[in-house]
Specification:
Strand content: 5-15%
Number of helices: 14
Helix content: 40-55%
Length: about 375
């Protein structure tokens, strides 16, 4: 599963694996892919430094990258002053806070223990937090910087290039992809409707070739609805130079979900058990459909807030739901490929399955092409 891009980065397989778990990122790189650590949950620079130190010690010298979140549109402070977390919190309406409390009370969700802080904060959606993450990351030999919400600011792209770091950005349409190209991006990730997390409205089969044509000769990675070697082969046949996989790693043995109940829900879910909802961050993100997403998507509710207000609003609630494993409300971002995630496997086992399926698909096409050539 090699392409020009994978050869350029020095990896055996053109499989780019996004994950919030350092152990998964390192295992992806060791297995011959390219591990990409999601940084959004790191609100303290020292925590990110600790985990990058761990990856360095366990990646066996193989390349890896970092994914940050720098929104194209952000909440502005008066007179362009720097917004603090407290400033943003103060913008959240009391009606929305009450809706959260009423929903938690309806399902009997216990409080966090006294002094226990919410472990899930979305301050990483704020640009100044992402910049502090980059201050740490650029001290490490990362080979790729990805931004999940469009092109990073021009100075960030320049800074990455000055350190020989390639820059990738996710796009949900050919129009978005062309903007990335104009902004100096090196790699476009065409993220289809099927993908987990923030995603657009165009399916991967349509989106991938449109983006490939729109940004040629930039390399394109296909994302969304990919979890088998046959699907990797299809993505490459559409012109992609690799695939960007996220959801498939959630049920690997190296993942650290801290929730047996959530793992069970993922393993039991079918491809139709996800929904694009603004409930988590304020932007449409595909996730498991739960009573929590249904409550926020209900027309009788208050509606969601823009990013980053929604994420800050629900942070403590999500921590309580996860800690106490309140199953009707318990969910996570995940793509429609969840229907293939039926057992816990190691990262290496996932790669073994991907390579077998890829070889099978290539052999199948070669047989068809051979028969066509003889006719």
């Amino acid at each position: 599963m090699q392409t020009e891009l994978s050869k350029k980065l020095g990896v055996e397989h053109a499989v780019f694996g996004f994950t919030p778990f350092p152990a998964v990122a390192a295992a992806i790189s060791r297995a011959g892919g390219f591990g990409v650590l999601g940084a959004v949950r790191y609100t303290a620079p020292d925590d990110l430094k600790r985990d990058l130190d761990w990856i360095e010690a366990h990646v066996d010298g193989m390349p890896y990258g970092l994914d940050v979140v720098m929104p194209a549109k952000k909440v502005e402070a008066p007179k362009n002053q720097t917004l603090t977390e407290a400033d943003v919190e103060a913008m959240i309406p009391d009606t929305h806070r009450q809706f959260v409390q009423d929903t938690l009370a309806k399902y009997g969700v216990p409080e966090l223990a006294e002094g226990e802080a919410a472990g899930w904060r979305i301050t990483g959606w704020m640009e100044q937090v992402a910049r502090s993450q980059l201050d740490v990351a650029f001290d490490y030999p990362i080979k790729l910087l990805a931004n999940a919400l469009g092109s990073p600011p021009a100075d960030v792209v320049t800074r990455a290039h000055d350190q020989d770091v390639l820059v990738a950005a996710l796009a949900g349409s050919a129009r978005h992809a062309r903007k990335h190209q104009e902004g100096g991006i090196d790699i476009v990730v065409a993220q289809g409707y099927e993908a987990g997390g923030h995603t657009g409205e165009i399916a991967s089969m349509v989106l991938t070739p449109e983006v490939v044509e729109a940004v040629d000769p930039l390399p394109v990675l296909a994302a969304g609805g990919i979890g088998s070697g046959q699907q990797v082969a299809a993505a490459l046949a559409l012109g992609a130079q690799g695939v960007w996989l996220g959801s498939i790693w959630l049920t690997t043995t190296e993942a650290d979900l801290h929730s047996p109940a959530l793992t069970r829900k993922l393993l039991a879910a079918g491809s139709g058990d996800t929904v694009r909802s603004r409930a988590l961050t304020g932007k449409p993100a595909r996730q498991l459909r739960t009573d929590w997403t249904d409550a926020w998507d209900d027309a009788d509710g208050p509606g969601t807030l823009p990013m980053p207000l929604q994420g800050l609003l629900v942070a403590e609630a999500v921590s309580r739901i996860q800690k106490h494993e309140v199953e009707p409300l318990l969910g996570t971002p995940v793509g429609q490929i969840v229907g293939r995630m039926t057992s816990e496997r190691s990262v290496q086992a996932v790669f073994d399955d991907l390579t077998r399926g890829f070889e099978k698909a290539v052999d199948h096409i070669n047989r068809i092409a051979g028969r066509s050539g003889q006719s």
